[in-house]
Amino acid sequence: MRFWGKKNVIIKQKARSYNDPFLQPLAVAIVSAILVTLILTTGFLEIKRSEKNLIAFMEDQALSTVGVLQRLTEENLKNIVTFPDKKSPRTAADVSDEYKRWMDNALTALLVRLNNEWAKGKISNEYLHKFAIDNNLFYVGLLDAKGNAIYQSHPLSIELLDDVAPLSGKKITTLELIEKLTLQKKILGYIALTRKDNRGTVIISLDGHGIVYWSLKVAGEKGMNKIGEGHGILYMQILNEQKKLLSTVGQSAPPLLETDFNFKDILEGKIKIASRKVDYGGNKILDVVAPLMADKKILGMVRMGINRSSMDKSLMENRRHIFVFMFFIIVVALLSMWLLYHDQNIHMAGIVEMERQLEKAERLSSLGQLAAGVAHEIRNPLNAISIAAQRLKRDFVPSDPQKSADFQNLSGVIKDEIKRLDGIIEEFLTFSKSRRLEFSNYSITEVLQKIVNLIREEANARGITIETDWRQAPSTIPMDVNKLQQALLNIIKNALESITEAKGKVTITIDKEGKNYLVVKISDTGCGMTEEEINRIFNPEYTTKEKGVGLGIPLAFEIIRGHGGDIRVISRKGKGTTFEIILPLERFNEAAI
Q1: pLDDT score of 128 more than 70
Q2: Each residue of 379-401: pLDDT tens digit?
Q3: Contact criterion met (CB below 8 Å) for 38 and 310
Q4: Residue 449 belongs to domain spanning
């Protein structure tokens, strides 16, 4: 705070920091990362959903095929195990015989296989025991010509018969025992193959479990043969409740492990269908398992291998489309965030600039009050000092010549300093005045030429050349002639004062700036300025001069702005400076400084 007489002028400057942008880069990065993460998560969920839908579609197709197979198997199974009740063009016996013939053929194939192994000498009791277990057979035996067992899966005891007494002490052959067990329905049937040389017989018999096993095996196989492979089905299998393979068509299937499916829930009917993706034999397969039912009872499982190449291709296309879409969404999102960040910072810079201008206006207003106080408090005593100094110089000159010369020098110094102080006060008073500009159309060329004529003598004395180029003469524009002349004179004088070398040059040109403006360029070969100095030269509180208060450029700036114009400064330290004064060709609004 400074005190000038009774007037107190307080100059306040609020320091603000706008080094950081309105929206922090870290905040933009976090928001962008969250947005990208959400988009990627949505994309991956969409890919999973597409894959799930395609698998569900293929499972539905598989269930339709299983339904067809189930109906065929159930029909075949009923015809094998029991005679149909309804009438048809074919007799019940014919239908039954046909299905039983399928079963006989399947069992006969086993007999032929055993006979061949017997001929090769590979048969043993252990071999037949394992063979019976693997094929769900009650009994397997190789009999000699008399019907006695040579090799058998397990010994048959006469105690199995209901009436053992009549046979006590009587020797009975294995073949006779099997026939009696069949009659007493201890076993449900047997089939035998006599060797060509009549030297023996191969025989197998079935109990209830065996009949169901082989009936299901034959019925399922016939059903699968009816359906065929096709429709993308690579293989189809029927497994019983013990997960033993009953029938298969198509290609070989990948091994089935206990951990591949929840077999317990499938066999209990809790799971309608289960699937897994496998790569086997050069094929991409959807391995499907579903329960096989007959008369509302689960008898086993159907396993099906469906070619999923088309599904994978469709998924790949979906993935590609989703990733492309996600890429564009991410680019748009990031671009939007960048534009938001950029625009906010531009607006923030505008707000900062407006506040700087307001602060500058506040400082100028304070300096105006300060100038009024200085003029009021100092000018009258300064006039008295000037009058006293003149009287001293005129009436009180010492008689001694040596002292007289010193007196004259000191008096001159006093007079000059008083004159300089008076000039400073006048500059303050000029800066503090605030009145409306008085516009009239006048030639900017004439104004500049008048200024050049005023300063040319001073410039020549300092060895400075002034060059002019009036490209847009006469360039009549609306102006307050006196004010604009003052502003341009201040800038040109500043250019002269910046040249400290013995020789230099100031160039003044007039050119067009777009359609609605002209530009006055004032260039010098002086000392130049740093970027920091350029940012501060319009501040009334800043000056690089040893004498003076540095109000010339700020005053010129305010006058130019009052004319609706602007000033650009281009400078390099040690390379000179160019002031570009942009002035409108037409009057846009009423302005005041």
Answers
A1: yes
A2: 778 778 878 877 777 777 787 78
A3: no
A4: 435-584
